[in-house]
Amino acid sequence: xxxxxxxxxxxxxxxxxxxxxxxxxxxxxxxxxxxxxxxxxxxxxxxxxxxxxxxxxxxxxxxxxxxxxxxxxxxxxxxxxxxxxxxxxxxxxxxxxxxxxxxxxxxxxxxxxxxxxxxxxxxxxxxxxxxxxxxxxxxxxxxxxxxxxxxxxxxxxxxxxxxxxxxxxxxxxxxxxxxxxxxxxxxxxxxxxxxxxxxxxxxxxxxxxxxxxxxxxxxxxxxxxxxxxxxxxxxxxxxxxxxxxxxxxxxxxxxxxxxxxxxxxxxxxxxxxxxxxxxxxxxxxxxxxxxxxxxxxxxxxxxxxxxxxxxxxxxxxxxxxxxxxxxxxxxxxxxxxxxxxxxxxxxxxxxxxxxxxxxxxxxxxxxxxxxxxxxxxxxxxxxxxxxxxxxxxxxxxxxxxxxxxxxxxxxxxxxxxxxxxxxxxxxxxxxxxxxxxxxxxxxxxxxxxxxxxxxxxxxxxxxxxxxxxxxxxxxxxxxxxxxxxxxxxxxxxxxxxxxxxxxxxxxxxxxxxxxxxxxxxxxxxxxxxxxxxxxxxxxxxxxxxxxxxxxxxxxxxxxxxxxxxxxxxxxxxxxxxxxxxxxxxxxxxxxxxxxxxxxxxxxxxxxxxxxxxxxxxxxxxxxxxxxxxxxxxxxxxxxxxxxxxxxxxxxxxxxxxxxxxxxxxxxxxxxxxxxxxxxxxxxxxxxxxxxxxxxxxxxxxxxxxxxxxxxxxxxxxxxxxxxxxxxxxxxxx
Length: 733
Description:
By secondary structure, the chain is mostly beta strands.
């Protein structure tokens, strides 16, 4: 009997285990599964994202991104980050039926046009909520502040903002918060004095904060990461004594806030700090000695301040991956680079300082260096060979120094940007540029380079090719017209000769072509009409011999045209065929052999000249592409002087038709071009009276009608031109 009872107990135990395992495999409650499926049906899935493979035949607790309580079967975690969900997020979504959720991640989806529903505030068990980068818009509901158990809150979107006092209410009520991330949200508030003492992470980057940052933030004993960058109305005053967060703080990012004054010595206590970014903070003075104790620093950004002192002590930061010191007043030499092996360094930027001497030749260990920018200093001598042997380098900028010698051949093919302009480099262009299959920017202008431009330069991925102001000779390679991604082509101020036989490909992206200051001759190829996006065409100071190119009217975006000092000849006919782009702002046809009457239809079409710009106070520049690397300079003759503009304002509206053989009367329609700053019609054969309509040119600064056959009195209305600084009417009748 006892034996039978034992067998019965064993079978009962086995059946219980099977029953328990069966219940575990079907944990999901039917209402939970239905709520999830209804939620999914509200959206379509981006084809580039991993879709949700949810279906009724599988227990919902096994679905992608779903986690359940093993005892109750309630859904407690839902991670739908980067699932490509697209559609309207309904304010009464079935998602809110999952009332036991503790973690909810909806980041990196597309709920464009949706508001954050107040019902999120009813998910009272939530400890983690991530709604970042999902294109929610509108106001963040104050109901979020009811989530009293919330520990992590992440909302990142420039489409969102807080109600008045909403941010303060949220921080005041959510006393358990550990992590707060509100990148790009419009908070437009001060930071309140009362907030969770448990905070480890506070990210409020670019949130329109203002006022004074409470010093209490620096004394949060558990604080590990603080990022308040790009809040220009926020004033930060660093504690002068030891911070309570000194032992825990690993990241401090305050780029673009107001932290006037010097870096306090209290920074020296931040011994756990790995990442320090205090660029653009109006800081001044020298680096305090205690700062050199922060030997664990991996990323240091002190750029765009007014800091000064010798550069030599930075070798103490031997674990650096990123050292950014641009736009300061640091001086001294770069010898510190040779003191240690910089095996972890990825980027080094000490541009726009006052460094002197040579770049040391015995630097080692920089096999991971990707960005090297030492531009705009006073460095001299040759470029050392180790720079040409960096296997990971993609950006090299040594421009605006006093470097000399030849450019060596690069040993690796990782380069994306090379800028060596404004130095004293000589010799030929290295052949190794042919091997740089990823090179997009090549700027070697304003040096003493010589030799021919080889067709090997025609890298098909180049976007900027700037070889201007060198001693290059020979002809222009025909293959330049086949570089389909090229935006800027600058070969100006060399000794290039021959004709312009380039056939520009259809659909090219060229915005700037500068061939001025060479010895080019012959006629212009009509393939220029394939450059539909061209804004600057500068062919001045050559020996081109042609009539006025009527195909220029096929360039709808052209804003600057310079044909100065060539051998162009003949009339510019008064017809629609010869009309230029309505966007023209600068036209210089001076010192040629153009003849006939001034073309009225040409002036009629200059729509951009009929507007006085800069009324809104903002400055815009013509063809201002890639301005970090390339400067679209232009020489103009105005007020009797030859001036070089490093960049051309859209308001620099200039007409220079001087030193030709134009005749007849000055068209009165010129008075309609009220945006004109400079008008030069001198040294022609113009006759008749000065049109009274010129008094409408209220911003005109220079008017030169000298050396013509103009007669009659000077119109009294010209006295109203209060901006006029130069008026030359000499040598007329």
